[in-house]
Write a structure and sequence with these properties.
2 copies of one chain form a homodimer. Chain A is built from 11 helices and 16 strands. In chain A, the strands form 2 sheets. In chain A, strands 1, 2, 3, 4, 5, 6, 7 and 16 form an 8-stranded mixed β-sheet that branches. An 8-stranded parallel β-sheet of chain A has the order 10-9-8-11-12-15-13-14. Chain A has helices at about 5-10, 15-30, 75-80, 105-125, 140-145, 165-175, 230-235, 245, 255-260, 270-275, 295-310; strands at about 1-5, 35, 40-45, 50-60, 65-70, 85-90, 100-105, 130-135, 155-160, 180, 195, 215-220, 240, 265-270, 290, 315-320. Chain A is α/β, with parallel strands linked by helices. Chain A is globular and about 60 Å long. The interface between A and B is large, with 47 and 47 residues.
C-alpha cells in the first residue's frame, strides 16, 4: 500500500498532469466508462463541520475509491491548519484491497483549476484575448494560473466583492507577464473568457455582464441554493457541465432549470465535446457556459496520477498493509 | 497518522474489547450521541464486485470515519485472498484530518460476533442452557465462540443447509468444552438462545422452530430481499435491532413490516435496553429477537479500540501524513 503525504503533492503534481487527468476522466464519464457514486455530505454536529465522501469508479483509468473529508470552519483559528481537509483513498478494482492514500488538499485545488482549464481549451474562442476573473480568493489564484496557459491572453480583468483581495489575482497575472485591471461587473463584458469562483447565494454576474462569444466557467456553485450568475444567462448560453445530474441539482443550472428557463436536455457533458460526440462551440458569437460542480472522479484521477509520479520519483511511502 | 495492518489485528483485538466497543456504541446510538450516515453500495460492473462506504460519527467515543470495501466474489479463486475486503479510516473530529487506517476484515467478523453477544447478554434468559446455531460457515464460528462466553451453556445444537459444514461449529463447541449435536430445524425448539447466520432469500427458520422464552439473534440479513426467519416469528417476538431504519428496510424486519405483521414502532433499539430506557425481556416465556443489520459505527468503534491497543503495544505504524 502506497502513501503520498500532503506535503509531497506540490513537488509531484504539475498543472499539466492535473489537466490531462481531468480531461481524460471527463471523456471517460461521457463514454459511460466512469461514474460517480452518490455523494455523502453530513453536518456532523461538532465544530460546525461538514464531512462526507465523494466516490466513483473509472473503468478506463482503473481508478476506484473516494475522497473523504470536508470543511472545518474553525481549523485555521483554533489549530493553524486549513479549513478544507480531505484525503483520497484508492482501491484495487481487481481485489478491493486498498491501494493508496493520498493527501487531498492541494489536489482538490489543482483538479478544480484543471476543470475550468479543460473547458477553456474545448469551448473558448481560439482568439480569446481578455481573461476575466469573478472572485479573488485562494482558489481563484489556481483557476487563473491554469487558465492563462490555455490562450494567448493580453489582459486580465478582475472583480471581487471585497476589492482589497484583488492583489491575490493581480500577482498571478504579473507572474504570467499579463497586465491586470480591476473592473466593475459591467466591465466584465469585455472579457473573452470568464471564470467565476465565488461562494454566494445570490448571483453577482447578470446576463448583460457577459458579451457575445464569451466562454464562462462557473466554478463556485456546488450546493443547493448557491448561485453565481443570473439564471437568464444560462438561457442565452450553450450550457456544458462535468456531470448533468449534479449540474441541475447542486450546480449553477439548478436555478435556470428550476425556473423553467432551460431543461435538463439543454445541459451537455463537457466530456462529449472532448470525445467529439458534441460539436461544442459552433459560432464566434455563441456564449458557452461550463457549470463545474466538482465530482469525485476528478479527485480519483489526479490522485491516481500523483501515485504514479510518486512511485516514479521514489517518494512514495510503501507500507505492508 | 497511524496504520494498523490487517495482519496485526488478530494479535491485538480480543473478543472482550470488541464486545465493549460494540456495546458502548449501541448505547451511544440510542442516546442520540452517535449516528450512521447513509450507506453507499454499488455494483461497480467489474469482477462482479459490490463496493461501498459505511460511515458515521460517534460523538461520545469521538470516532468519525468510514469502512470502505466490499465483496469481490472471484478473489479467492483468482488471487488467493478472501472475497470480503474492507478497510476502516478514522478521522479527527476536531480537524477533519485523517487519524488512522485499519485493516477491516477480521474486525468485521469480530464486531458482527460482538453484536449478537451483546444481544444475548441483555436479552437472553440468565438460565439459558442450550445454544442453537443456524448456519455453519466461517462467520458462524465467530458468532458461536463469542456467544458461548455469555451464558453457562451445557449443549450446542446446530443446523446447516449443507450438513457437511457442521464440523466448523462443532470444533468451536469442542474448544469450549460444550457437547455438540446436529439437529433438524424442528429440533431447534430446544434452544434457549439461537443465532442465525446464513445468507438466504427464503426463510429457513419457521415460527414454530423457536420455543417460548428463547432469544434469537438474526445476523444474516443485510440486504433488501434477504430473509432468514418466517415473518410470523417477528409478530410473536419482542423485536430489537442495532438501527431501526436499517432493520425495517434491509434487515430481517423488512418482511414482517412489509406484510403488516408488525410496525416500525414495534422495533426497539438494543441500545435502549443497554441504557435502561427499555426494559428488554420482561418474562421467562417471552421470545426476544435481535435483528442485527450491521452498522458503520460498529466498524468505527472496533477500529478506534484497536488503534488504542496498537499504540499501547507499540505495533502501530506511524506515518508523517
Amino acid at each position: 500500500m502506497i502513501i503520498v503525504p500532503e506535503k509531497e503533492i506540490a513537488g509531484l503534481m504539475t498543472r499539466a498532469d492535473a489537466f490531462t487527468a481531468v480531461e481524460q476522466v471527463f471523456a471517460a464519464m461521457s463514454r459511460g466508462d466512469a461514474y460517480n457514486f452518490p455523494v455523502i455530505r453530513e453536518a456532523i454536529g461538532h465544530e460546525d463541520a461538514l464531512y462526507g465522501f465523494k466516490g466513483g469508479f473509472d473503468k478506463a483509468g482503473m481508478a476506484l475509491g473516494l475522497k473523504a473529508g470536508g470543511y472545518w470552519p474553525n481549523n485555521l483559528e483554533k489549530h493553524g491548519v486549513i479549513n478544507h481537509q480531505s484525503t483520497v483513498f484508492l482501491f484495487d478494482p481487481d481485489t478491493g484491497k486498498v491501494r493508496a492514500m493520498v493527501g487531498g488538499n492541494l489536489l482538490t485545488a489543482l483538479r478544480t483549476a484543471a476543470a475550468s482549464s479543460v473547458s477553456i481549451k474545448h469551448l473558448a474562442r481560439k482568439d480569446a484575448k481578455v481573461m476575466g476573473m469573478i472572485g479573488a480568493g485562494h482558489q481563484a489564484t489556481f483557476q487563473l494560473r491554469a487558465a492563462l496557459e490555455q490562450r494567448k491572453f493580453e489582459k486580465v480583468i478582475g472583480w471581487n466583492y471585497h476589492p482589497d483581495m484583488l492583489p491575490n489575482i493581480e500577482k498571478i497575472a504579473d507572474e504570467a507577464g499579463v497586465p491586470f485591471e480591476a473592473v466593475p461587473l459591467e466591465g466584465m463584458v469585455e472579457a473573452d473568457v470568464v471564470i467565476s469562483i465565488t461562494s454566494t447565494f445570490a448571483p453577482s454576474v447578470m446576463a448583460d455582464h457577459i458579451g457575445a462569444g464569451t466562454h464562462i466557467a462557473c466554478m463556485g456553485t456546488d450546493t443547493k441554493g448557491k448561485q453565481e450568475v443570473e439564471a437568464a444567462l444560462l438561457a442565452r448560453a450553450t450550457v456544458f457541465t462535468d456531470e448533468i445530474a449534479q449540474s441541475i441539482t447542486i450546480g449553477e443550472a439548478q436555478h435556470a432549470v428550476g425556473a423553467g428557463l432551460i431543461q435538463e436536455s439543454d445541459v451537455h457533458e463537457l466530456g462529449a465535446v472532448i470525445n467529439g460526440t458534441h460539436p461544442g462551440r459552433t459560432s464566434d458569437d455563441e456564449i458557452t457556459l461550463f457549470d463545474g460542480t466538482g465530482v469525485g472522479l476528478q479527485d480519483l484521477a489526479v490522485a491516481a496520477s500523483v501515485v504514479d509520479l510518486a512511485i516514479e520519483k521514489g517518494v512514495a511511502i510503501e507500507v505492508d498493509f
